[in-house]
Each structure stands twice: as structure tokens, then as C-alpha cells.
Write a structure and sequence with these properties.
The structure holds two protein chains of two kinds. Helices cover 79% and strands 0% of the residues of chain A. The longest helix of chain A is centred in the C-terminal third of the chain and has 38 residues. Chain A has 13 helices and no strands. Chain A is mainly alpha-helical. Classes of the chains: A mainly alpha, B mainly alpha. At the A-B interface, helix 1, helix 6, helix 7, helix 10 and helix 11 of A face helix 4, helix 5, helix 8, helix 9 and helix 10 of B.
Chain lengths: 315, 290
Amino acid sequence: MTAYLVKRLIAGLATLVAASIVVFGVLEVVPGDPARLMLGMNASAETVQVLRDQMGLDQPLAVRYLDWASGMLALDFGKSYTYSVPVLELVSERLVVSLPLALIALALSTLIAIPVGIFSAARRGQTADTISMGAAQIGVAVPNFWFALLLIYVFAVWLRLVPAGGFPGWESGFWPALKSLLLPAIALALPQAAILARVTRSAMLDVMSEDYIRTARAKGMPRRHVLWRHALRNAMIPVVTIMGLQFTFLLAGTIIIENVFYLPGLGRLIFQAITQRDLIVVESVVMLLVAAVVLVNFLVDLSYAAIDPRLRARQ
Amino acid sequence: MMMPVAAPPQETWRTFASRALRNRSFVVGLLITLLVAAMAALSFVWTPYDVTRLVVGDRMLPPSASHLFGTDHFGRDVLSMIMVGSRNSIAVAFVAVGIGMGIGVPLGCWAAARGGIVDEVLMRFNDLVFAFPALLSAIMITAIFGPGAVNAIIAIGIFNIPVFARVARAGALAIWPREFILAARAAGKGKARITTEHILPNIANLLLVQGTIQFALGILAEAGLSYLGLGVQPPMPSWGRMLFDAQTRMMVAPYLALFPGFAIVFTVLGLNLLGDGISDIIDPKLRRRQ
């Protein structure tokens, strides 16, 4: 078990290092001089050269990579070219929007999808199953940003229950801030919930056809008990795997959704940074997101062990 | 009583077709997909109105008999724009699937055939690509190298490669230990020849199912990119761009946001149903459970 987790941990760290090389390399070939960008088109060649020296842009590639990578380890991401503030500051300002958004969406999607999946599996072939799986089939096909537009129209324009966009900041109070994250979170969660419900249903059906389920039923265990105690736990492995994958989708989804709702989150930050060629911000945010993906994958591996005692016992 | 040992009867084309036609997902999915494809094909020769002509007097007309889906802020007919937009969506998603299959399948087959270090390196490389949220990277690629259909195709296509590599490898690994492969090896066939003659035909079904899934995801991704202004560029209509333009006019003309969205959902739904249907038809384990 420990050996397995250590192996996964090393694999995750190796992925991070490889990813950092890829990100650094890709942004290296991008046209445009950051120093020129910061100073504007009117700056003289000498001024640009001075800044290039200050920023260490003329150093060899490997030196700059090591500088950048070791800086990140010390949480020093450098300074934004366009905002002239430390990237860490920018990122943490935005993280208080994006992280709650992604977490609410993940919670919503899980709370909807798993009960619906179980319910559907328990009533396989009946009307309730047909309806919920039909709805899931449509949910999978709905682009989250279009669903967001529909939500805005119904709840913001028509019913005026929530703001159509923007974020008042947590300092304006918990409820107003949460209210402006509600529609974006629902828009993000629904398509993911549809996928997760389908996976949960089919995982449950797979497990329900196992011999030990029949044995449990045969020895007189109530159906409900079998469903929740035996079937659900065994069906959780594929479900948790998909949830891990969905976290990646949620992160990427926030980029579009934050643009729909004009939320000042990480997604909008990276989108603006890309269009303004603020490469140091792009590098940092991408690395942060990749690190989040690697971390979540590791948590998924950990949860396998929590779900399946056989994995814990195996050396 | 002794049962004669015989090979399972080969399913005839007719029984297969009748089984396919009894599968509701497959039939509905196929019909929707064909309808969308027909709409895209028709748009090359005929659309109700010319999508490049701006008619200022006809701006933002609600749906009516002369403009079924209404007109946009330039007075263009929305139905015509959706028809032309469909061919962009289809083209981008189709070529992106082609890139994913064309590179991913050979890589996956190679990894399965060689095993060992080749397999290990390729699969770790796969993991690396999976660590990048695909849409984020697609946004980066299109934003850095310039927005447009070609870069959107490349961006979506790159992230199809590891998907197909993984499916092809898993499928091929399941086929390699089979007896008919052993027979082929005994007959002196090399790994490359076995892969093309025996492995590929046997994993074609899996690849077809994955292909429809990736096609649907490609359409969603293209819509997302063009919503952000990174896909097909105006004046060429695209579904995502139409939704972006509709957003600011939602108070006045909510129907503008409705029809392009329906077009996306309809197309993706059709492809997903088709994929579900195909995998039901070809997977006997699932078939029993129906």
C-alpha cells in the first residue's frame, strides 16, 4: 500500500517537472519580447536592453528555467508584466473566486449525480430510470456556457433573483458573494452531473450483477441494505475515478464560465494574460492548474485505498 | 449428449442490420446525425438567405414565416447562419478526430505490440498530456498562435491523440494473447503485419465508438473556443460566436441565444446516442443487460 502510494507520488512529481519543462518551452517560442511589452512601443532600444538585463532575459535557457522553477518552489512566481504586481498576489486574489466556484460546482454535481445514478440503477428499465437517463443524455450534450446564458435569462433577467454577472467580493458579505457564484456553479455542475449520473448508474448495474450481491439477497438481506452497504461501496471506484477527471474539466470550465459571468477568477485572469502576452502569469497559472490536477489524481489514488481494503492490504 | 464443437455462427449482415435497427439509441442517433450532416451539405448549395449580406432594415426580427429563427443584429437570417455554422463545427471536430486517430491509434498499437520501454515511455507521455486541462491548453494554443479554424483544429486534435492511443492500446492488449494471433505468429507474420491484418479490424469497433464520443466533444470544444472568440472568425458564422453575440442582446432578443444552443445540443445528442447505440450493438456483455 505505502509502496503503491509512494510510486504514485513520484509519478505525480515527475509529471509536474515534465509539465513545467513543456510550459516553459512552449512559451519560450512565442513571439514577442516581454521587456518591450512592458515598456511600450515608444521606449528606446537602450531602455529595453536595461530591462532585459534586469529581468535576466539574455541568460541561457537552462539558467532561466532553473530560476523560474526554483522560484515557484519558494512560492515566488515573479512579477506580472502588465500589472507590475507579484503574480502570487494576483493569483491569490483570483483564487478566492475560482476555488469556491469549483468546489461548489463539484459538490452540487456529486450531490445530484450519485443519488440519481443509484436511484436509476435500482429502478432499471422503469419509467423513472428512462426519464432520468434521458435527462442525463441531454445534460451531457448541453454546453455549460449556453446553459449559463439560459440561467442568466431566467434567474437574472426575468426573475431578478440573482445578479447576471460580476462579483461583489467576499468583503461585501458572505451571502451577496455566494449569490453571485450560484448561477456559475450550477452552469458548471449540470453537464458534469449528467456524466457522473450515467457513470454511477452503470457502475451500480455492473456491481449488482455480481455473485456476492445475489448471495447477500439470498441470505435475506433487505434490498435497500444490499444497495447501500454492498453495491455502492464497490461501485465507488469508477465513480471516484470519473470525479477526479471531472475536476480537470471543472478547472477548464471555469475559464469559459467566468467569462460568461464576468467573474474576476483565475480563468479570466489567464484568458486576459494570454491576450495581453503576460507570459509569466500564463506560466504560473497553468502550472498551478497542472499541480491541482496532479494533486487531485493523487487524492483519487488515496481514496481507492480508503474504498477498497484489498488495496490497503496489498504490499 | 455430446454437442458438436463448432465455431459460433458468423452473424449475417441482415441479422446484424435488423439488430441495429431495433436499437433505439442507434436509430435516433443515426437519424439526428444524418439530418445535421444533410443540413451542412445543403448549406453549400442553398441557404434561405445569403449569410454574408447585411440587411440593416431587418435587424433583430423575431422568428416569423420569412425568417424561421429570426434575424441577428446585422439583419442576417439566423437559420441560414446555423446551417453554415454546422459545416464549420463538423469540419473542425471531424479533422480533430482524424488527427487524434491518425496519430493516436498507431502509437497505441505500437505500444501494445512492443511493450516494455516503448510502452512505458508512450504511456507516461500520455499521462503528461492528460495532466493539462484540455480546454485550457486549447485556449492557450489558439490565443498564442492566433485564433482561427486551423489552430482550433490543431488544439482540439492534439488532445484527441492520447485518448485514441489509450483506447487502441487497451484494445490491442486484449487481442494479443488470443489464439488466432498465436496462429498468425506461428505462420511467420511480423508484429506490424499482425497489427494491420488482425489487431486493427478487431479494435475498429472500439475506435468507432470513441470516435463518435470525441466528435461530440470536439463540437462542444469548438463551440467553447468560438464563444471566446478563438475559433472560426467572423464574418464566417459559427455556433459559439452566435451565442457570444446573443449574450449582450438577451434582453431584446432572447431567441438569438436559443437556436444556436439548440443546434449544438441536437448535434452532440445525436452523436452521443449514435455512439451509445453502436457500443450496445457490438458489445454482447452490454446487450445481455438490456
